[in-house]
Amino acid sequence: MASPTLISDTGAWKDLKGHVEEIKKTHLRDLMADAERCKSMMVEFDGVLLDYSRQRATNETVDKLFKLAEEAKLKEKINRMYNGEHINSTENRSVLHVALRASRDAVIQSDGKNVVPEVWSVLDKIKDFSERVRSGSWVGATGKVLKDVVAIGIGGSFLGPLFVHTALQTDPEAIKSARGRQLRFLANVDPIDVARNITGLNPETTLVVVVSKTFTTAETMLNARTLREWISAALGPSAVAKHMVAVSTNLTLVEKFGIDPNNAFAFWDWVGGRYSVCSAVGVFPLSLQYGFSVVEQFLKGASSIDQHFYSAPHEKNIPVLLGLLSIWNVSFFGHPARAILPYSQALEKFAPHIQQVSMESNGKGVSIDGVLLPFEAGEIDFGEPGTNGQHSFYQLIHQGRVIPCDFIGVVKSQQPVYLKGEVVSNHDELMSNFFAQPDALAYGKTPEQLHKENVPPHLIPHKTFSGNRPSLSLLLPSLNAYNIGQLLAIYEHRIAVEGFVWGINSFDQWGVELGKSLATQVRKQLHASRTKGEPVEGFNFSTATLLTRYLEATADIPADPPTLLPRI
Ligand SMILES: O=P(O)(O)OC[C@H]1O[C@](O)(CO)[C@@H](O)[C@@H]1O
């Protein structure tokens, strides 16, 4: 008999469908009472501790999930990824972000060629160039040191680097090496983002890095042309060569744009945009800001998890366990969302980055073979650092919808504060919440408990918490560059595990294309209406009405306006 195409046709999937009905009869209050069970649900690797005992799962559930992984050929798929096979079949590409952080002597093949030497030749170039800028041996057109950097890019060419930058900004070692320097990110095509990013900057001391895998992304290219104009207007067109550099896979378009390809940092089509933070996309701007040695630690942290993911058995493999538990929550419990709740302000841009990695990867409607999925894949990711989230959306998580939560805690704060006479340190105060929230979700509060506390009867329904709400906790030893790399790789691989088991292609993103092509049609219409007075045509009633209103209300804009840059 031919093997089934869809994972939902397998015996393991059907078995879990039946098993979840049994698990629904249990309560986390009871499951948590079994210390042996809890002990078996703690896994540690390289200082990172995962506790998944607050999942609505038993050891039997986990065994059944491993069977599902077997049916999905998870290990084979992981091996195929590391072996450089073209697992991104709709784009006919290998998926080798692990090669970006492999050690210099590693061998990772793509299309019959070891890609590691190329990776390291770009890393060496980044090290050299960033040291020249930081030391002042590469200066701007007027001879001034380039102390500020604006990185232009969007999506994967922005969110990962922003996450890492935000996390490093308060790390003591990174602070020392960034002293006197600024790194900003211009992503949105909204001119307000341009205004915000150039405010307070002097073109004479600014280096602009255009980051785009394709070098065709409309938002990035318009922002690049805008900042090229900002530099030329202040320093003359010849200054662009000293003040603009690029990161791309498309060096031909980089040169066409007017950037010397010698000042461009390459990466490769086997690096997906949302998996590119460890390529020059992140490493170059971050090295300019923090120095290469700090960024190298970040790469090492990611590499440590890469090796763990590749070699650890499923029961000890943190990304595998996380991925399977997500599948359990999404596909069997039917929970559509996941909250990412780092108890560290330094991780405030982690959830926005994971939103893209997860939702662009796994938000798919067909299997990798193009068969319509009879189940929902992907989940809605959102999150905020604790404790801010507690004062925002936790009400819904505690008493409204069930949202599986990832609690991420850090043992040692980057910036400890102790106040004499306070009961606990500021970090202990933060961590008290990290430890308390998962139990509040798991145990809840019963009407009986409330009666005992003399709560007035009419308030009892309002103050009752059903509990039985799943979460997991990840505890990191600290939050230095190495740990940040670990955290990134854990989530990247977890998301790959989910996609491998669902049987989808987690490495393409056709879903973003339709919006792009419709925007092209609107752009053409706006140009024709503004320059030739052409009426709005070819749109439905709603869009035509809105477009007409927009054009009429801005009819005073000349057809060919002079260059105008923000002045704030
Ligand atoms: O780096 P580029 O080519 O400018 O693309 C930016 C982003 O656009 C997308 O293609 C769609 O959002 C992402 O996958 C990618 O990270």
Automatic annotation (TrEMBL):
Taken from the UniProt entry, a GO cellular component term is: cytosol
What's a GO biological-process term for it?
gluconeogenesis
Pathway(s): Carbohydrate degradation; glycolysis; D-glyceraldehyde 3-phosphate and glycerone phosphate from D-glucose: step 2/4
Q: Does the keyword Cytoplasm apply?
A: yes
InterPro entries xref list = G6P_Isomerase (IPR001672), G6P_Isomerase_C (IPR023096), Phosphoglucose_isomerase_CS (IPR018189), SIS_dom_sf (IPR046348), SIS_PGI_1 (IPR035476), SIS_PGI_2 (IPR035482)
Q: Which subcellular locations apply to this protein?
A: Cytoplasm
What are the entry keywords? Answer: Cytoplasm, Gluconeogenesis, Glycolysis, Isomerase
The principal localisation class reads: cytoplasm
Q: Which reaction does it catalyse?
A: alpha-D-glucose 6-phosphate = beta-D-fructose 6-phosphate
Q: Which family does it belong to?
A: Belongs to the GPI family.
Annotated protein name in UniProt? Glucose-6-phosphate isomerase
